[in-house]
Amino acid sequence: MKAMLAKEKDRLEALRAVKTAFILARSEKGVDYVLSDAEELKILQKLVKQRKESAAIYKEQNRYDLHDKEISEAAFIEAYLPEMMSSSELEAYLKQVIQNAGAEGMKDIGRVMGIATKELAGKAEGKAISETVRKLLS
Which fold is adopted by the domain 87-137? Predict the structure, then answer.
């Protein structure tokens, strides 16, 4: 409502996109379905990722007007996400997960990834988790 009254077009469009994504996700599951916090986080992360990918494409095509719009919307949506772990925090956490899982090499990557992605949902991107686990196990 504040974005509407302040005529903040980018923020308003970002919030409308979030609302639409939540409604679509709920309607896919059923009329009375309530999204869990993890599902909401995944939706928000997906929306941010889409906007960043679009912005990269627009930048390649020298469409800076659209690039700036996508980056702006991504920033508004990211404000609702928890803060991501730094690479050093992620590495320290994953060392602990590897030790607890008793992983000894690349053959155990599936087990470690299963544990890590579940525990780090919303705190780190899957790609960053995967790269760090591969580095630590090799």
Answer: Arc Repressor Mutant, subunit A (1.10.10)
Retrieve residue 54's tokens: 């679009």
Spans of all domains in the chain: 2-78, 87-137
> Could you give the dihedral angle defined by the CA atoms of residues 121, 122, 123 and 129, in that order, rounded to the nearest 10 degrees?
50
**By three-state DSSP, how is residue 132 classified?**
helix
The DSSP letter of residue 63 is -
Q: Name residues whose C-beta falls within 8 Å of residue 39's C-beta, 6 or more positions apart in sequence.
A: 25
Token duo for residue 7: 């005529």
Convert the pLDDT of each residue in 64-96 to its tens digit: 999 999 999 999 998 888 888 888 888 888 888
CA atoms within 13 A on the CB side of 113: 18
Please count the CA atoms within 13 angstroms of the CA of 105 that sit on its side-chain side: 1
Say which amino acid occupies 69: K
3-state secondary structure of 18: helix
pTM of the model: 0.71
Outline where DSSP puts E strands in 3-110: none
